[in-house]
């Protein structure tokens, strides 16, 4: 399974949606994921890929990790996974 | 001063998953203490407890709730649903903004601490679930009850070891009595039956390996239990106006501190709490027909408690009944006073006195009528419920038949 499919699967589970309902341009807000849901999703992603996501819930916009849409989250995770294997 | 009545009760404990099941077990003198079942139990010296069996949280709560609710919160919400539904109260408008929830627990989310310490220490994991803190905090259960039922008034959690529930209910009582709140949800819960929870208690060397036998000469210690007891305390006129069924009246309480030792109980501290509760309730000692004892089954508690009762009641100590239902459901620590209040309500409403089971040999230092082994029919109008905690913090409640 690709990184993208795995991340979408995790986000879909959190949003209680089918993966097909999670599009790349959706925001977490669109999907009904609140701040607690967000940290839970990040935890699930960290567990799934065995990576450390640099995200601070106090300053989401200042974090090195862009959560503005599903696409930016997937891109961020792909980069972290690539760095981990490098 | 307003009068305060109980209009709802709910529970889950080793004797049953409802008030009716629990009272039936108490009437039959059934023991809910069994072999414990959880991970690593074989490494414990103490392997018995009043464990809640057959409770499937999966069917009760959704996935998101499951991630947030420690077992002590699950028990609380399960019992609160019964109590609030029985009361018939719907918390909206003024009633919602003034009513709150005060609960007791000694340990809070003990199994959440246990599971996550295990993950980081034993399994070497470096990451824990983001809900660990909101799940384990001692006020989690009270907060979830407030959210579930729209209780927007004073809400908090009291943690005074084995007196937690009695202290919590005393607070709720006081809030309704003074007119601060028209109704309060109160009681307590505990869930320490996991490896770390029982291991910690083992260290004190006060636990029995085979049974809880309060007041019996051959008693050899306490046995832990788990569960919750939740009640709705309501201002009497408020309850009468809406035609609510009234289970009992709460008429007084007292709290005292031994100010002497962190674990050894004091006769004076206990006796002052008993006498204080009777004074607060404006009753004569002769009116008290039954006491639900703290009765832990330890050498120290039971003889101290009997001596305190003898001091507080004088001659009348020989005429009243005193029993410890911990012999059946175990010691629920911070939730114990709440589950034991059910025995008090049963005594007042049904005229059935729950027995002290496991009683085998009289102890001259506990020479009171402890209702040994078999429940008894008796008419009582006033009852007391004792709780004497580690740390010397005592809380006694007084109830009257309605």
Automatic annotation (TrEMBL), chain A:
Gene3D superfamilies per the UniProt record, alphabetical: ACP-like (1.10.1200.10)
Gene Ontology CC, one term: membrane
Coiled coil: none
UniProt entry keywords in alphabetical sequence: Fatty acid biosynthesis, Fatty acid metabolism, Lipid biosynthesis, Lipid metabolism, Phosphopantetheine, Phosphoprotein
PROSITE patterns in UniProt: CARRIER (PS50075), PHOSPHOPANTETHEINE (PS00012)
InterPro entries in alphabetical order: ACP, ACP-like_sf, PP-bd_ACP, Ppantetheine_attach_site
Pfam families registered for this protein in UniProt: PP-binding (PF00550)
GO biological process, one term: lipid A biosynthetic process
Pathway(s) the chain acts in: Glycolipid biosynthesis; KDO(2)-lipid A biosynthesis
Keyword match Cell division: no
Top-level taxon of origin: Bacteria
GO molecular function terms noted in the UniProt entry: acyl binding; acyl carrier activity
Domain Carrier residues, every copy: 1-81
UniProt protein name: Acyl carrier protein AcpXL
Organism of derivation: Pseudooceanicola pacificus
Automatic annotation (TrEMBL), chain B:
Pfam families: ketoacyl-synt, Ketoacyl-synt_C
Signal peptide stretch: none
Gene Ontology MF term list: 3-oxoacyl-[acyl-carrier-protein] synthase activity
Domain spans labelled Ketosynthase family 3 (KS3): 1-401
GO cellular component, one term: plasma membrane
Superkingdom in the source lineage: Bacteria
Subcellular location, record wording: Cell inner membrane
SUPFAM superfamilies: Thiolase-like
GO terms for biological process, alphabetical: fatty acid biosynthetic process
CDD domains linked to this entry: KAS_I_II (cd00834)
Keywords assigned: Acyltransferase, Cell inner membrane, Cell membrane, Membrane, Nodulation, Transferase, Transmembrane, Transmembrane helix
InterPro entries according to UniProt: Beta-ketoacyl_synthase, Ketoacyl_synth_AS, Ketoacyl_synth_C, Ketoacyl_synth_N, PKS_Beta-ketoAc_synthase_dom, Thiolase-like
Transmembrane segments: none
Family: Belongs to the thiolase-like superfamily. Beta-ketoacyl-ACP synthases family.
Function as written in the Swiss-Prot or TrEMBL entry: Proposed to synthesize NOD factor fatty acyl chain. Involved in the synthesis of a highly unsaturated fatty acid moiety, which forms part of a lipo-oligosaccharide that is responsible for host specificity.
Name of this protein: Nodulation protein E
